[in-house]
Specification:
The protein is α/β, with parallel strands linked by helices and 393 residues long. Helix content is 40%, strand content 14%.
């Protein structure tokens, strides 16, 4: 009797999930670089467009992309996954698919700059309002609910200061309101946090980050129950066209094979670097989900199984933060994260530059903060590089 991939361990799912071999029996997944597909007859084309299983057009689906979707769904524990061209395409589609004019969104105040831009600048053009709340404050979520609330959105841990929200409690509020909870799980990865198991309705990823993990391509994903994906997102994705390239899907498939190995190694090193920064006299404050002094340590213990590879630390002011960044010799200055290469950035002038200063201050983002994504370099080399840069700060 054939094994059920849902019974496999996560390591096996990451390597073998979703494989659909061609008649050639290739070991590495096949890359189908094609825009369209041929039918043996006009009647067959009619059946395909009528709903018979099979591929029609790359914008609707592709065999390589389908393998990526199935594998990520297995890793996440989701019934269904749909890939998108980028992480922000996934965030945008996840919201648009659930909202109509006159609806209301509640969102955690701490969000990636582009996500906040969609809520603040784009959705109001279509009659959708957003209320921002402090993510960890359960009562704030409950009080913000209105009769027309349809979506609750949270990043956890949040970008850039790693604030963690109680996903289970927020999910209960969403259910009671008849709304859907969307969780951006990029920082935790599916290795350390399972939002669907905690009660979320939809999970989104920027596959550009840890899933690729090597700085090569863009990609995104929306995951949830088959009912939610089909009813809320099937037509939106088919007709608006945020399709993932098959080439990107192939690279992301290969990224999934080593996702757990990379994330575990990066997390091990990140814990050491976080402690090093916390002990340095130039550091004003360190936030790392793997440390006991994280402001939401109790929530983390309840819903995450690891601290991840992101660290945020305050060096006091912009001048000190820039001196730190400019002194680094191994760690790159870049706005990406989750890469095999360690990366540090100054959020106030890069990833969250589009946020008005007053909104940055609301989430505690002053100009002394640095966000660091720890990579796969040697821990001793990174420790030396970070220590030298801290001395210069």
């Amino acid at each position: 009797m054939a094994e059920d991939p849902r019974d496999w361990e996560i390591e096996t799912r990451a390597v073998r999930g979703g494989i659909a071999r061609s008649p050639y029996g290739e070991i590495s997944e096949a890359l189908f670089l094609t825009q369209g597909f041929a039918y043996p007859s006009a009647e067959a084309a009619d059946r395909r467009f009528g709903g018979e299983p099979g591929f029609i057009y790359q914008r609707f689906g592709n065999p390589t992309t389908a393998m990526f979707e199935e594998r990520l769904a297995l890793i996440e524990g989701a019934e269904m996954c749909r890939a998108t061209a980028s992480g922000m395409a996934a965030v945008h589609a996840s919201l648009i698919g659930l909202l109509r004019a006159g609806d209301h969104v509640i969102a955690g105040r701490a969000l990636f700059g582009s996500s906040r831009w969609i809520l603040t600048n784009l959705l109001p053009r279509f009659g959708v309002e957003t209320t921002y709340v402090d993510g960890p404050d359960v009562d704030a979520w409950r009080v913000a609910v209105r009769p027309n609330t349809k979506v609750l959105l949270v990043e956890s841990p949040a970008n850039p200061l790693l604030e963690v929200a109680p996903i289970g409690a927020v999910a209960e509020i969403a259910r009671a309101a008849g709304a859907k909870l969307i969780v951006d799980n990029v920082f935790a990865t599916p290795i350390f946090q399972k939002p669907l198991a905690l009660g979320a309705d939809v999970v989104v990823y920027s596959a550009t980050k840890h899933i690729d993990g090597q700085g090569r391509v863009l990609g995104g994903a929306i995951l949830g129950s088959e009912k939610v994906i089909r009813e809320a997102y099937r037509d939106i994705l088919r007709h608006t066209g945020p399709a993932m390239s098959p080439f990107n899907a192939w690279l992301l498939l290969k990224g999934l094979e080593t996702l757990e190995l990379r994330v575990l190694r990066q997390t091990q090193t990140a814990a050491r670097i976080a402690d090093l920064i916390a002990e340095h006299p130039k550091s004003k404050r360190v936030i790392y989900p793997g440390r006991k002094d994280h402001p939401q340590a109790a929530i983390i213990a309840n819903q995450m199984t690891g601290g991840g590879n992101l660290i945020a630390f305050d060096l006091g002011d912009r001048a000190a933060a820039w001196r730190f960044l400019d002194t680094l010799q191994i760690v790159d200055i870049s706005n990406n994260l989750g890469d095999a290469k360690s990366i540090a950035t100054h959020p106030s002038t890069t990833t969250h530059r589009s946020m008005p200063e007053a909104e940055r201050l609301e989430i505690g983002l002053t100009e002394g903060w640095v966000r660091m994504s720890v990579g796969l370099e040697g821990a001793n080399d990174l420790s030396r590089d970070v220590s030298r840069a801290l001395d210069a700060a």
